[in-house]
């Protein structure tokens, strides 16, 4: 193999699994160390710079970082990254003084943001300090988009939401709430320099052709619409017996909200097997904890109506069969159809995009599925002035993805307004700096704890089920947060190898607790992977290969289960190994 | 400073025949200087014991005083250990071996502990052909007392401070062959490929197995001009043979050129397969080995590999015709046969 090019900013970035997996590439280990040091304000700001909504995401993020965590491969459970983020938000001091301070000198350009959700708000935050006059349109009464209308208060208190939305709106954003934009043409005609569409995926899927759907209409609600109507306090109650159709996070929010509005027997009925449900495992656990029954492998057949009232639904029982390619088919088991009683039904089987307000003659192309044609890198549509982001761009994802889109769209919009090439993306900000403090001392906590993941305490069910606004999770207390933070392996502290210092004493190879380092003769990658002390079978993880050393061998390090404990560097007599902290940050529009 | 080794190991760490991973053979974290050759030798011992699937509690490691003699703490943490008096490791090993002949004995010593203060004990343990593995971690200096030249420092070798050693070196391998050691090998701490099979073969040899391992002292004897530095040893190493240790249970599948290879059968049925790299050398002929060593010295070469092996000579237990079983397996009944038996024995002398 050729020597690894560690000058490529993505090489060390990839070693930091959590950060690499995060769509916004939040520097996770960096803020976890700050939390351990009780520097909550600083930890919050590291987050805010990167993901804009630390308090919100610390409660509601889909956590793509956690399954990626190296700790999963070393023991079992990842570091509770998401809930540590919340610790920073809960315990922070005055963060406003660290944020950009308006009013900002105008650059004479105007931008329209359509939709007030996470993607639009991110664009607003990134562009406002540059002097853009930003107009934000949203049909709701306040900003936040689906974070306000779809995420129930018992998961995300309104106070937290308002605080973080207002940090952005207070940058001098011109908001036009309760304003439904019904024509993109009109907006473009207002001569904005650029327009951003962050309208989400606002239409909940229905089952229009299921027998009885029309007759039962008064008792059947679309999940996300119903959640919004609860959030805006139009709906105050629900009947005793509720069926929630669907197995995603919206279904979990629907059933748990039902329990708080009077639902006694709340049942989630889903087509797929339990393990295939789209909802995050912790959301399913929380639902079950609140006495919600989940019926899997049930396909809805009909709504049953008697005397003008819904009495329940019929379901066909199925089983999942997977073909050789892993493609799933749901086949009937042959058992008799099941009847489940219900007074009301919530349909939470997915949501989709809809753009009835965008005229099709603006030069803005749509594909065969009715989705706008949007560039994956620049987020520009085929109308050069119009940019998309969040769920509106490529279909439903999650908040952190919307934020990542927002950052990139903001960069594009700024480049566009400056008349520059959108394809020339700014390189990330990187910094690699030695952590050596003394002969065997590092500026990070190098010892590896064996603590198992700590559980976030919850408020008692008897209290939370009575009040839909009472937050269920209490968050880590400070001592537990410290212990959980110490579980982080500091994967951003890189093992940096300098060939010409190595005397090949093998000390690093001998001391490495997880047998990551091997000195051997070079070979092509597949052969080299087999030749290591412990074969490197996880091909998702890279090998760090040195140039040829004096004896003709090369140093090969398998990044897979490196504990970043620094022992290789401590046992190295010539400092050929050094522990260097790698800081990687996606370049935002405001620092262009 | 890290004195704790993390407890996590590679989740796919291989297991040996008795179900242990390398972890069960490790000791605590070394406190020797970073890059010390001794740590590599410790790692080679760990690797050899793991590969041989020995039960850790069937091994005893005995040492004297010095940097090298500290190392038993850093390998085989689940085995028996004895840190004895300076230069007196052979006495303790002899006593232990007499009491329990079933154990594997690792004697770990350094150039000071063997070639200076312990020379008297060293020569006598060879003469007795005690069944043990005697490893000298040879760095040519007194590392624990700031690096003065030791008795194995080569004449003309330059110390870190710049002084030239005026004295002749004691060549431990030649000396061991001269005194009748039945297994003599020389190796280098930086060459585990060679060292691990040598240790495995030494463990299986019944009799005194001597390993002189050049082990650079990174702190005091790794300077230009030193003949025990990493660079010098790598440049002047001359391997007499590559060695494969073939345990008893394994079938020999590889074929070798008979002119260039030799097989040595050990007492327990295992084999040493030697592929000769040097000519005019026969590992079972003392005279040719002594010649090869002398010639190498003239050429400023360090001969490495298995130099000499003799499987004919009896070990100390054989010579003394000791009891078949370890002493701790005898009960009071056998050890104290009673007054009647004593009377019988006494009568035999009248």
Can I get a quick summary?
The complex is a heterodimer of chains A (592) and B (350). With 592 residues, chain A is an alpha/beta fold. Chain A is built from 22 helices and 24 strands.
What does the model show?
- The complex is a heterodimer of chains A (592) and B (350).
- Chain A has 592 residues and is α/β, with parallel strands linked by helices.
- Chain A has 4 domains: 9-98 and 446-486, Orthogonal Bundle (Fumarate Reductase Iron-sulfur Protein, Chain B, domain 2); 110-202 and 353-417, 3-Layer(bba) Sandwich (FAD/NAD(P)-binding domain), CATH 3.50.50.60; 205-351, 3-Layer(bba) Sandwich (FAD/NAD(P)-binding domain); 493-591, Alpha-Beta Plaits (2-Layer Sandwich).
- In chain A, 29% of the residues lie in helices and 19% in strands.
- In chain A, strands 3-2-1-4-16 form a 5-stranded parallel β-sheet, with helices on one face.
- In chain A, helix 3 (28-36) crosses helix 8, helix 3 crosses helix 19 and helix 13 (223-231) crosses helix 14 (249-260).
- The longest helix of chain A has 19 residues, at 399-417.
- Chain A is globular and about 90 Å long.
- Chain B has 350 residues and is α/β, with parallel strands linked by helices.
- Chain B has one domain: Thiamin diphosphate (ThDP)-binding fold, Pyr/PP domains (Rossmann fold, 3-Layer(aba) Sandwich), CATH 3.40.50.
- In chain B, the strands form 3 sheets. Chain B has an 8-stranded mixed β-sheet, sandwiched between helices. A 3-stranded antiparallel β-sheet of chain B has the order 10-12-11. A two-stranded antiparallel ribbon of chain B has the order 5-6.
- The N and C termini of chain B lie far apart (70 Å).
């Amino acid at each position: 193999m050729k020597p690894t090019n560690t000058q490529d900013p993505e090489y060390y970035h990839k070693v930091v699994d959590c950060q690499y997996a995060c769509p916004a590439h939040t520097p996770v280990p960096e803020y976890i160390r700050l939390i351990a040091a009780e520097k909550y304000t600083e930890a919050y700001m590291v987050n805010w710079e990167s993901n804009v909504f630390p308090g919100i995401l610390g409660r509601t993020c889909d956590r793509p970082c956690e399954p990626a965590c190296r700790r999963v491969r070393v023991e079992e459970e990842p570091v509770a990254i998401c809930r540590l983020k919340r610790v920073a938000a809960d315990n922070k001091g005055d963060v406003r003084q660290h944020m950009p301070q308006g009013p900002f000198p105008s650059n004479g350009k105007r931008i329209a943001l359509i939709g007030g959700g996470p993607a639009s708000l991110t664009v607003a935050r990134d562009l406002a300090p540059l002097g853009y006059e930003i107009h934000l349109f949203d049909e709701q009464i306040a900003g936040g988009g689906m974070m306000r209308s779809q995420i129930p208060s018992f998961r995300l208190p309104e106070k937290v939401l308002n605080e973080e939305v207002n940090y952005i709106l207070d940058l001098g954003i011109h908001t036009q709430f309760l304003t439904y934009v019904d024509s993109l043409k009109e907006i473009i005609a207002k001569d904005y320099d650029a327009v951003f569409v962050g309208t989400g995926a606002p239409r909940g899927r229905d089952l229009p052709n299921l027998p009885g759907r029309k007759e039962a209409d008064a008792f059947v609600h679309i999940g996300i619409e119903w959640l919004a109507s609860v959030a805006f306090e139009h709906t105050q109650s629900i009947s005793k017996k509720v069926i929630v159709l669907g197995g995603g996070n919206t279904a979990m929010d629907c059933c748990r909200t039902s329990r708080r509005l009077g639902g006694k027997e709340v049942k989630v009925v889903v087509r797929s097997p339990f393990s295939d449900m789209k909802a995050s495992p912790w959301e399913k656990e929380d639902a079950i904890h609140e006495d919600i029954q989940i019926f899997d492998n049930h396909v809805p057949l009909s709504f049953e109506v008697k005397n003008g009232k819904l009495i329940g639904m019929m379901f066909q029982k199925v089983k999942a069969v997977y073909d050789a390619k892993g493609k799933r088919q749901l086949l009937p088991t042959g058992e008799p159809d099941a009847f489940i009683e219900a007074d009301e039904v919530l349909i939470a089987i997915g949501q989709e995009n809809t753009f009835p307000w965008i005229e099709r003659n603006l030069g803005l192309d749509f594909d065969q599925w009715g989705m706008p044609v949007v560039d994956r890198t620049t987020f520009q549509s085929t109308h050069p002035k119009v940019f998309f982001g969040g769920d509106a761009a490529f279909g439903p994802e999650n908040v952190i993805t919307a934020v990542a889109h927002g950052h990139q769209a903001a960069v594009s919009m700024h480049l566009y307004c400056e008349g520059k090439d959108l394809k020339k993306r700014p390189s990330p900000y990187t910094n690699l700096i030695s952590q050596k403090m003394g002969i065997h001392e590092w500026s990070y906590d190098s010892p590896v704890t064996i603590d198992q993941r700590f559980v976030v305490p919850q408020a008692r069910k008897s209290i939370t089920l009575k009040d839909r606004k009472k937050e269920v999770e209490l968050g880590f207390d400070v001592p537990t947060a410290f212990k959980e933070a110490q579980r982080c392996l500091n994967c951003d502290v890189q093992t940096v190898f300098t060939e010409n210092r190595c005397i090949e004493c093998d000390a690093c190879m001998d001391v490495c607790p997880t047998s990551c380092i091997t000195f051997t003769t070079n070979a092509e990658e597949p052969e080299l992977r087999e030749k290591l002390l412990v074969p490197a079978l996880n091909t998702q993880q890279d090998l760090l290969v040195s140039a040829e050393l004096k004896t003709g061998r090369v140093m090969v390090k398998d990044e897979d289960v490196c504990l970043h404990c620094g022992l290789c560097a401590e046992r190295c007599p010539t400092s050929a190994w050094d522990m260097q902290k790698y800081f990687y940050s996606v370049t935002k529009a405001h620092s262009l | 400073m890290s004195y704790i080794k993390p407890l996590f190991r590679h989740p796919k760490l291989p297991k040996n025949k008795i179900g242990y991973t390398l972890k069960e053979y490790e000791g605590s974290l070394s406190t020797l200087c970073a890059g010390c050759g001794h740590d590599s030798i410790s790692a080679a011992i760990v690797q050899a014991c793991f590969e041989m699937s020995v039960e850790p509690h069937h091994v005893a490691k005995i040492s004297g005083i010095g940097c090298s003699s500290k190392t038993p703490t850093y390998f085989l943490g689940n085995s028996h250990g004895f840190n004895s008096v300076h230069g007196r490791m052979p006495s303790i090993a002899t006593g232990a071996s007499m009491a329990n002949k079933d154990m594997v004995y690792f004697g770990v010593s350094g150039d000071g502990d063997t070639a200076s203060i312990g020379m008297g004990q060293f020569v006598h343990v060879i003469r007795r052909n005690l069944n043990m593995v005697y490893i000298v971690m040879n760095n040519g200096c007194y590392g624990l007392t700031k690096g003065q030249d030791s008795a194995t420092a080569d004449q003309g070798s330059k110390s870190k401070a710049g002084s030239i050693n005026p004295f002749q070196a004691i060549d431990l391998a030649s000396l061991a062959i001269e005194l009748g050691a039945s297994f003599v090998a020389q190796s280098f701490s930086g060459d585990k490929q060679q060292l691990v099979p040598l240790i495995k073969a030494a463990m299986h040899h019944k009799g005194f197995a001597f390993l002189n391992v050049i082990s650079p002292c990174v702190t005091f004897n790794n300077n230009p001009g030193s003949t025990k530095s990493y660079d010098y040893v790598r440049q002047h190493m001359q391997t007499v043979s590559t060695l494969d240790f073939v345990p008893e249970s394994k079938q020999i599948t590889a074929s070798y050129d008979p002119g260039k290879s030799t097989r040595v059968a050990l007492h327990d049925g295992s084999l040493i397969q030697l592929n000769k790299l040097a000519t005019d050398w026969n590992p079972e002929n003392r005279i040719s080995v002594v010649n090869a060593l002398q010639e190498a010295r003239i050429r400023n070469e360090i001969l490495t590999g298995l130099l000499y092996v003799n499987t004919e000579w009896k070990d100390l237990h054989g010579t003394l015709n000791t009891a078949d079983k370890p002493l701790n397996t005898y009960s009071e009944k056998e050890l104290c046969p009673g007054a009647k038996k004593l009377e019988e024995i006494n009568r035999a002398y009248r």
